[in-house]
Structure formats: structure tokens, C-alpha cells
Design a protein that fits this description.
Helix content: 25-40%
Strand content: 15-25%
Strand order of the largest sheet: 1-2-3-4-8-9
Number of domains: 2
Number of strands: 20
Number of helices: 13
Length: about 400
Amino acid sequence: MAIGHVRYPTAGCSDIVNAQPHTIELAQGPIMAISSNGDLINYGELRSRLESDGVVFKSDNDAELIGRLIAMYHVRGGLNIEEAIAHAQVELKGAFSTLLMFRDKLYAFRDPHGFRPFVMGHLSHEGDGEPSSEGTVFASECCGFGIIGAKRLREVLPGEILRLEKGQPVVSVSHSPLRPRHCVFELIYFSRPDSINFGESVYQARERIGACLAAKDADLDNENLVVMPVPDSSNFVALGYAKAKKAEFGMGLLRNHYVGRTFIKPTQALRDEGVQQKFNPLPNFFPGKRVVLVDDSIVRGTSLRKIVAMIRKAGAKEIHLRIGSPKVIGPCFYGIDTPSREELIANRMSEAEILDYLGADSLTWLEVADFDGLFPGRRPDFCTACFDLDYIYPPEGFATKANAPSARD
């Protein structure tokens, strides 16, 4: 058995000590290793408590804290490892999709609200002349399974603990869910379109978002109009818009795939440089065209402003911005690295000021109310806190939406 992790630092410094998996060394030897995806709201509180009990930390990473909390309940509390995991699940507030290796067993468990995706698959492979080997695999997204020839089985359920051991079937040790709070931004932007997360096809969800935006544009005629995405995260939103509006779909911007996501780069200078390296207009594509430019979200607005200027300079006659998410007015505290509230353009400017800053001819966002139609009957299952401040676990002192529901509603 093996576990691994690709670090995307949303909390803690980008230092080797925060690289996962973490090994938890106990008196019996290093018998525990852990990897986790997500962020905890009560990290500081729990760490202070553990440190006061003599626990020594090597990192400032959530996964290590989860492992040491479980170890504390197991070693000092006298609980067996499964009871220790269940006890920790109750105390941890926030997002965690976690794999824990304990001696000859592997445990997969998830936070009770299911903030982040977590999927289980089955691997069956026959080599040349070798006997077949079979196994169970886990990933943050099922799109990773195709690379190794695995088949998606199901999600690890919110609040579930699964046990794996050699020669035995997978056992669901316990399942203690709370009200679902799946991150809707996974479906809007963060997940790959070939994934199925929270029971939703990501690319189909994005096409529905595009169609919803198109329905708001009944008065925008199709004459000399081209619908195009800011690639790649907006491709299916733009495609859904174009299909619904029966308008031309075009790829007028070419993306350099060797440049990463610019909104998470640490400085504005690096973000600006990233935009210049990331996109290039297609020669002779824009002159005289009316462009519906579709993007997944507006965070700071600096990248989109440069893209609009680039398209205008390339000859576009009109530029109409259509955004596949509501206004981002709050940071994410559950595992996506969004800026502080003060940096978010929707908090600093009015709609007219944003339009003027971006340099476009018109601007339309998705609305939070649109999620009712996009996910019929499932709207309450999704966390939309970055759009409406409805945080189920807000940090202390953070202003939130009035009358936010209880975590156990």
C-alpha cells in the first residue's frame, strides 16, 4: 500500500516540512503516515491544546495535526485506531479528505460535510505473462483514475471511515454525516471537467451554467457575435452559452499550458507576468467581431482586465463579459486559496466601477439564486460562502451572512 500528495498550499508556508505524507512517530516506532486535502478552521485551537499536552509538531500543516490528534486518542486515550479516527472526525471543523496508513491497514475518511471531493476506484491490471493484480485506489478526483486504468466506484461518503487490509473486502467502519456542504466552486472552476464530483458531471454542470447566462442575454443579438472562453476552465461554460444562444463558438485565445493558474500566484507582478505568458490572441480572429468573453469567475480582476485589453487591441468591436459564478465577496477557508476579502474586486468596487476598470462594454454574473435551477433540489447541499458569506464554520470575528444555519441543521 502507498499514499502520496501533490501540495497546493492554501495554509502554511511552501516549505519542505509541509510536504505530505507526514509520518507520525510514536513510542512504538513510525507506524502512522497521513495525507489530507482541505483546511481546518480550528487548527490553532487544536494545535495549542495538543502542544500543551506535550505534542511536538514538525510542520504547520493540517494533515500532521489530524494525524497527531488521532495518535493522541489512540496512544494516550486508549482508543483503538478506528475509534480514535471517529473521535477526531467530531472535533475537526472544516474540510478533510484523508488517507491514513496504520501498520498493515489503510483508512480513508472524510469530513462530515463533504466539502472536498474524495472518490474510490478499483484497479485491475494484467501484465505480460504476469498474474493479475487487483486493488482499491483513492483520489481527490476520479479523472486521476484513467491514467492508471482504474474504474470509479463511488465517493467516500461525508463522515465515512473506510478500512482496507490485504486480502479483505473494503469495510465501511462508520458513517456519521452532517448537513452536506459541497464546494460549488469545484464545479465552477477548480475541478477538471472530466471529473464527476458530488454526484455531478463537472462539464455538464458548466454547460448548464453557460446556458443560464445565455438566458439572461435575450436582448443581445447574434449578428457578427462570437462566444469564446478564457481557456481552459471556462471552455464548457462558453460552449453551453453558445449552444443555448445558437451563436458562433470560437477559440480566439490560445493558452500556454506550461503556465499554471495565475490567480493563486503570490504577487501581483507574477500574476501580471503570468497572464502575458499564458494567453495569446489568434491572428486575424478579432477584427470587427462582437465578442462574448466567458470567464469562470472574477477574483481580483487584474488578469481579466489585461485579457480584455489584449482582445480590444486585436481588433474586437465589442466585448461583453459573462462570468460563470456569482461575485466572489469572501475568501474560502476550506481548501481553496482565494485572496483576503480586501483584495476581492467585488468588495472594493461597484458594478459600474468594475465594468469601467475591466474596459468591457457589458458585464453579467451568475447569481446565487441561479443555483436553485442549476442544481434542482440540491441547492442546500452546496457551500456558496465565497459568494454569500454563509459560512458554516466562520473564523472567529469574520463577518458572515445574517442568520447563517447551524452546522447540524
